[in-house]
Amino acid sequence: MKTSTSAILFLLAIMSFSQIRAQTKAQAPEDNLKLNQIQVIGSHNSYKQAIEPALFKLIQSKDSTNRLGGLQYEHIPITDQLNMGLRNLEIDVYADSKGGKYAHPKGLELVKPDQPYDTAGVMNQPGFKVLHVPDIDFRSSSLTFDDCLQKLKNWSNSNPGHIPVFITLEPKDGETNRFGTTPEAFTSALFDQLDAIIRKNLGMDKLITPDMVRGNCITLEEAVLKGNWPKLKQARGKFFFILDNKDKNRDLYLQGHPSLKGRLIFVNAEPGTPEAATLFRNNSEDPSIQGLVKKGYIIRTRADSDTKEARANDYTHFKQAQDSGAQIITTDYYKPSAFFNSPYHIVFEDGTYVRKNPLNGKINK
Fold first, then answer.
1. Sheet containing 239-243, strands listed edge to edge, beginning at the edge strand earlier in sequence
2. Angle at 192 between CA 188 and CA 195, to 5 degrees
3. Which of 67, 93, 225, 261 is most buried, judging by how many CB atoms fall within 10 Å of its CB?
4. Which CA distances in Å does 202 have to 197, 238, 280?
5. pTM for this predicted structure
């Protein structure tokens, strides 16, 4: 029996709708859950593309310790990750006040480029840049922070009511590297600019900020310990930024902003401090994670690092991360590696990247 084209299209539409509805249901914890009562999987160095193949081969030949192998991973574009269901991204930003500091990676002077770099010339313009390691690991799906934020906003507008997306943001500076490149040092004024750029590109209506969580409490930590996180029905469609620093850059960001008053980004502050709300515990074996989650903090941990777990197809740390109740679990492998033979990839048992937190996910009425 022949089936008409219109009938086939109708059946495909029904199937497609059913798949979307099933995925939405799986990735939509109850709206009365609070933000700290879900658990999400996200990506580490989310913007990163593979190191230039010829450059990787050259540097690896001079790397007797094989440390470079830990950089042998890449990510699909950020919006594709979000479309898959990932709800945490990690972005590294470098200050470039004058423009051009990272426009000509020194590594491309050592090898013939596999593909053109920055044909639009955006790296010559002033502003924050997105890359991993200057001169070596510089390929990025979003070369500028403005471009990255605009992609986030466009995706969010196309997916209204999405589960809130956690963004771990790492401002990077430091010493001069072997190629003579010296990253621009962050200052309090540059952090003001960072806030301003987030506000400009996303808008306050798309942000969950420390002021919102603190409410009428004296300190942010007091609010967190009282469970003052927003419910998902208030947090949907928004982004939640966390500063991944524990050194001078964190202190600079806090300068003049006790309890993060007026700031847009949460910080990695230790319990007992006024700003404590979000904590990084990258070792999923850390026995303190469960207790911190139960107290009300939001914790970020990792399922894998430096390609080690993926090469060994070892899910031990992922299992520990799930059981710990850490709300944010990052991985380099939501898909298996394209560089070595291993089936290793991270996803929850139901095939999604968001679920009710197994440790504290009792619904609040």
1. 88-94, 165-172, 239-243, 266-267
2. 135
3. 93
4. 8, 9, 25
5. 0.90
